[in-house]
C-alpha cells in the first residue's frame, strides 16, 4: 500500500441561491409542488429564447474572487447536448471554452496542522436538470421540472488531493466559503451541493497519472471520503495484481460503502459542445469586478486571522466559532460589548451552544441578544455572580425573559455575591464553630482540610460568595 | 470527412432516431452529398475571419433576478403526450432492478 499514491480531483456543483432561474424568470425555489416553477423556456418549447440572470454572474464572480481565481472578462455560453427527459431542451446551457473563473486555489488545514494548497482549474456557470422519479410507477418515470434551469456553478479542482482527509477539508472549506458568501446553502443531503470525485492511483514518484475513475452521487462529505478510501484500496489491488484499471464512471452505494460501474468509457456521452447562439456574450470590466469585490463579506480565512490575533483566541476556538457564519457574527457582536474575548468565546461554545443543541435550533433562533450575554459576562468579571450560578440560574432565566435587565434579574434570583466582609465572616465563623476538631487538626498541620472548610462555607452561602475572597477569609480565620 | 454506416448509426443514436438498413444506405449517401457540397466552402480562405456565432453585436443582455411566473402548472402540462395531475410521464429511462 505504502508505495502507492492517491490522486484525486473533485468536481463540485453548487446550486446558487437566486430567486429565479438561470435563463428564465420562473422561481428557483425548493420544495414546491411538482411542475409549478416552470415556464415555456424551462419546458424547452420551440421558439422561446433564454435570458441570463445577472445575479448568477455576480455570484460566480464572488466565488472566483474568494478562491483566488482570475475572472474572465469575455464570457460565452455553450450548449452541452444530450437526450434525457429531465432536460427538455435536449441540451444544457453551460460554459465550455470560456469558464468565468480560472486558475484559483484554496488552502486547507489538516489535523496535524499542515496547510496544503488545492488548485482550482475552473469555475463555470450552468443550469441544473429536472428530477426523475423512477420508483413510484411500474412503467413510467415521473418528471418534475421545478429544478430544471436552476443556476449552478461547477467548481473543478486540480488533481492535487492526496488523501481522503484532504478531500474532506477541501469540501468543508469550499462549503464554508459558499455559505459565508451566501450564494449557496451548501446542503449536500438535499442536493444543493453535489460532488463527483475523479480518483486514480500511481506508484509514488511517478510523474504520469494512472487511469481515473469518476465516482458520482456522493451526497455527504463523509461519503466522498469513504468512496475515495474504497477506490484507493480497489485500484491498488488491481494494479498490484497486474490488472488494468478501466476508465469508468462509478456509482457509490452508501449502504455497502462500495462502488459499481455506472457506465463504461465505451458508453461515454458525446456532448457535441458548441457556442450557445441564443445568449449574447457577457462582457465584464475590471471596475465591475472590483465593485463586487468591495461588497464581499469577510471570509472565514480572514476572520480566522482576526480571531486568533486581534481577539487572541486559540485556533481551535476560532474554528469552532467560524464553522457557521451566523455563530461567528454573534460572537463578533458580543465582542463589541465585551472585551474579554476568551470568556465571550467560552460562553458561546459552552452555555449557548449546548442550549442550541438541546433545542436543535440554530443561533439565528437563539432568543438572547449578544448584549445580554455581555451583561452576564460583566457580572462575572466584576465578581458579582459566580460562573455556576450564571450558567445554571441566570442563563436559563434570561432565556425565558430575554429582554430583562440582567443585573436586576440576578438580584431577584438572589445570586448576587455577598462581598461584605461582615456577612462572609459570619459564614466562616459558623463553619469553624461547627468543626472544632477539624480546626485543631488544621492548626496542627493538616492543611488539606482547607478544602472541607471552603466547601462548607460555600454551601452555607449558597454560592453567593466570591470563592477567592472567601478563601482568603477562611485562611485568615484559621491562622488566627 | 466521409460518412460511413457506423457514423450514420452513431448520429442516429445521438438523435434518438431509428432507421432500417435501406434507409441507412440512403441517408449515408445523402449526408455525404451534403458534406461534398459544403466542401466547396473550404476553397475560400477564412483564416482571417472570426467564426460567426451571434447574429448581432449585442452583449450583456441580462435580466434582474426577479420571479415572474408566466404559465400555470396546468398550462405547462397541457401539451404533454402523457401526464398525471402532478407529473410529466415518460417511458422508464432506467432499467428495472
Structural account:
The complex is a heterodimer of chains A (480) and B (97). Chain A has 480 residues and is of the alpha+beta class. Chain A folds into 3 domains: 4-287, no CATH class; 298-412, no CATH class; 421-478, Arc Repressor Mutant, subunit A (Orthogonal Bundle), CATH 1.10.10.410. Chain A contains 15 helices and 17 strands. In chain A, the strands form 4 sheets. A 9-stranded mixed sheet of chain A has the order 3-7-8-11-1-12-13-14-15. In chain A, a hairpin with a 5-residue loop joins strand 7 and strand 8 (115-127). In chain A, helix 12 (421-434) packs across helix 15 (467-479). Chain A is elongated and about 95 Å long. The model of chain A has no long low-confidence stretch (mean pLDDT 91). With 97 residues, chain B is mainly α. Chain B is built from 3 helices and 2 strands. Chain B is flat, with a radius of gyration of 22 Å. Chain B starts with a helix and ends in a 6-residue tail after the last strand. Classes of the chains: A alpha+beta (480), B mainly alpha (97). The interface between A and B is large, with 48 and 36 residues.
Helix content of chain B: 25-40%
- Sheet/helix structural class of chain A: alpha+beta
N→C terminal distance of chain B: 42 Å
Radius of gyration of chain B: 22 Å
Poorly predicted runs of 5 or more residues of chain A: none
Element order of chain B: H for helix, E for strand: HHEHE
- Overall shape of chain A: it is elongated
Largest interface here, residues on each chain? A-B, 48 and 36 residues
Total helices of chain B: the number is 3
Major beta sheet of chain A, specifics? 9 strands, mixed
Number of helical regions of chain A: 15
How many β-strand runs of chain B?
2
- Average pLDDT, all residues of chain A: 91
Total DSSP E strands of chain A: 17
Mean pLDDT of chain B: 91
Strand numbers in spatial order across the main sheet of chain A: 3-7-8-11-1-12-13-14-15
Report the oligomer: heterodimer
Strand fraction of chain B equals 5-15%
Through-space gap between termini of chain A: 72 Å
The largest β sheet of chain B comes out as:
none
